[in-house]
């Protein structure tokens, strides 16, 4: 999405150390919005402890990209995604062992963060449930500065049991009430990062420790191999071992 | 810092259950007539194994995040208590346990229908363990037997999360004071820390359930106080998770419950993100 566009997007991801690549359960997607010369970005993180959560995370980001809403009402419009999840998760017709059948009945769960950027109006709006985060950074100075961290802004706010978006109809009517919304304006030289929980928590901890890693996340990663080195260093520095996704949106004034 | 090792398929955790099968387990539970302590014991153990299996289930498979064993104690000895094809085994991967219950019963469960009513839902209830009782309560022998099992497992998983031993009993040891043997057990462990010993006290005494106390004050009898003394303090992660689950705990809380079902203990270990809605 870089040619002729007012912004460029780079995306990197890797699975939890020790897992196979097929076990990566984050999902992300980006769509250009022609009318506003902007884009819609979505990122979701399927919960490790639920079944078929990669399918659900993927359906959530696809739903957001196809839609045009930008607030909590998005979570009231997931009937089709829930139907598709059931079709895809249960397409296997052979009987499941008791534990697999019971777990699947609990449904899949995922975090979600949807973001729409209006470049023409230089404004953005984001909606989130769970602990996948976005960070608006002021890159004008030598040391990058956080303008906005959303929905979490401190490393201590991350737990292992967040409220998530579920694939089952039970509780669907009240999911939107758990959504957080944030909006802001965009300035020349701003950067926006999107990251799933492990990386988000580590980036915030480094900021709190007065050893920020924003510049490293923005400038040292050009290729997947750079990202893998970056992730390994972060894990060695105490980042939780988990699937990791980083999306970076750079503007051209 | 201890208790930080990641639990994964390559680096599994360990649950060892010690279950009291003595004659006194035939007595009524918690002041209820018609329900034996042995019935409560079987319900607790089946639910715990059920919950561990469900936590480890993923799509159409089950991941071996844990090795699980059951030692029963009665008469004058302790021995492996799993039945069927698992008879005689001390510790098995959770997949082996989940795939080999003694039987799977069809039961009905009452559930909120989401519209203010209650519906009955058919559920599969796997049974690994049936109530049984006879003879004395050789708790010291069980704790000694557990030391052997844990020593061997810990040597094979030196980098692993320390084993968790859960002793379920009516508390009246018949072969001596079990505190020293409990201390010897919690003296064993992995590079990541000492073994954790939790105790579940099933008493004939009626009274409000007590969960994860920090002090022995208010415990109803000497056996409860002794089991409290044997119990490990919860790790900081466990305290945090217990709080997320709405339990009243602090940094002094111990892994001890009196006349309560300790099914939430299974949620005290981290194997990945778990939705708040599934508490």
Please describe what this structure looks like.
The complex is a heterodimer of chains A (253) and B (279). Chain A is an alpha+beta fold. Helices cover 25% and strands 30% of the residues of chain A. In chain A, strand 6 (133-138) and strand 7 form a beta hairpin. In chain A, helix 1 packs antiparallel against helix 2 (79-89). Chain A is globular. The two termini of chain A are 16 Å apart. Chain B contains 6 helices and 14 strands. In chain B, strands 1, 4, 5, 6, 9, 12, 13 and 14 form an 8-stranded mixed beta sheet that branches. A two-stranded antiparallel ribbon of chain B has the order 2-3. The longest helix of chain B has 20 residues, at 37-56. The mean pLDDT of chain B is 92. The chains are: A alpha+beta (253), B alpha/beta (279). Chain A binds chain B through residues 18, 45, 47-52, 92, 96-104, 106, 109, 159-164, 166, 170-171, 197, 241-242, and chain B through 6, 8-10, 53-62, 98-99, 104, 114, 123-124, 126, 240-241, 244, 270-279.
Q: What is the helix tally of chain B?
A: 6
Residue share in helix of chain A: 25-40%
Order of helices and strands of chain A: EEEHHHEEEEEEEHHHE
- Content of β-strand of chain B: 15-25%
What fraction of residues of chain A sit in β-strands?
A: 25-35%
Radius of gyration of chain A: 18 Å
Query: What is the general shape of chain A?
Result: globular
Broad structural category of chain B: alpha/beta
Number of strands of chain A: 11
Note the overall shape of chain B. Answer: globular
Please tell me the overall pLDDT of chain A.
93
Q: Based on DSSP secondary structure assignment, what is the total number of beta strands of chain B? A: 14
User: What is the CA-CA span between the terminal residues of chain A?
Assistant: 16 Å
Query: Helical region count of chain A?
Result: 6
- Measure the end-to-end span of chain B: 28 Å
């Amino acid at each position: 999405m870089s040619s002729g566009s007012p912004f460029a997007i780079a995306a990197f991801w890797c699975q939890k150390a020790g897992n196979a690549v097929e076990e990566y359960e984050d999902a992300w997607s980006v769509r250009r919005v022609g009318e506003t010369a902007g884009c819609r970005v979505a990122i979701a993180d399927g919960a490790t402890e639920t079944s078929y959560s990669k399918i659900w995370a993927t359906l959530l980001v696809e739903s957001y990209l196809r839609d045009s809403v930008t607030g909590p009402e998005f979570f009231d419009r997931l009937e089709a995604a829930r139907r598709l999840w059931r079709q895809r998760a249960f397409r296997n017709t052979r009987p499941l062992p008791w534990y697999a059948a019971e777990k699947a009945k609990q449904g899949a769960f995922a975090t979600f963060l949807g973001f729409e950027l209006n470049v023409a109006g230089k404004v953005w709006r984001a909606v989130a449930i769970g602990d996948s985060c976005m960070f608006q950074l002021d890159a004008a100075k030598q040391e990058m500065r956080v303008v906005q961290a959303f929905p979490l802004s401190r490393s201590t706010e991350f737990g292992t049991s967040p409220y998530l978006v579920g694939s089952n109809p039970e509780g669907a009517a009240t999911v939107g009430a758990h959504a957080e919304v944030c909006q802001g304006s965009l300035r020349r030289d701003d950067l926006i990062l999107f990251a799933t929980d492990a990386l988000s928590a580590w980036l915030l901890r480094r900021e709190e420790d007065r050893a920020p890693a924003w510049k490293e996340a923005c400038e040292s990663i050009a290729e997947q191999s750079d990202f893998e080195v970056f992730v390994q260093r972060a894990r060695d520095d105490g980042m939780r071992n988990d699937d990791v996704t980083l999306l970076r949106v750079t503007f051209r004034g | 810092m201890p208790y930080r090792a990641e639990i994964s398929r390559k680096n599994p955790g360990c649950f060892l259950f010690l279950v009291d099968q003595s004659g006194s387990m035939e007595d009524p539970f918690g002041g209820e007539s018609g329900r034996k302590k042995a019935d409560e014991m079987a319900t607790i153990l089946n639910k715990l194994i059920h919950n561990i299996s469900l936590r480890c289930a993923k799509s159409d498979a089950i991941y071996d995040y844990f090795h699980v064993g059951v030692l029963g104690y009665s008469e004058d000895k302790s021995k492996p208590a799993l039945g069927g094809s698992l008879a005689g085994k001390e510790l098995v991967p959770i997949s082996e346990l989940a795939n080999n219950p003694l039987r799977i019963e069809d039961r009905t469960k009452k559930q909120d229908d989401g519209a203010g009513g209650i519906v009955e839902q058919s559920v599969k209830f796997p049974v690994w363990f049936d109530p049984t009782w006879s003879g004395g309560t050789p708790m010291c022998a069980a704790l000694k037997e557990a030391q052997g099992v844990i020593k061997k497992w810990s040597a094979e998983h030196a980098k692993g999360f320390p084993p968790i031993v859960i002793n379920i009993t009516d508390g009246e040891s018949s072969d001596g004071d079990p505190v020293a043997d409990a201390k010897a057990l919690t003296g064993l462990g992995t590079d990541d820390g000492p073994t954790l010993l939790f105790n579940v006290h099933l008493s004939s005494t009626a009274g409000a359930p007590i969960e994860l106390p920090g002090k022995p004050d208010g415990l109803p009898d000497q056996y409860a106080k002794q089991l409290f003394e044997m119990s490990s303090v919860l790790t900081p992660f466990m305290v945090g998770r217990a709080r997320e689950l709405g339990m009243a705990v602090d940094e002094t809380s111990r892994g001890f419950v009196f006349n309560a079902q300790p099914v939430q203990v299974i949620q005290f270990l981290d194997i990945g993100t778990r939705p708040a809605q599934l508490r």
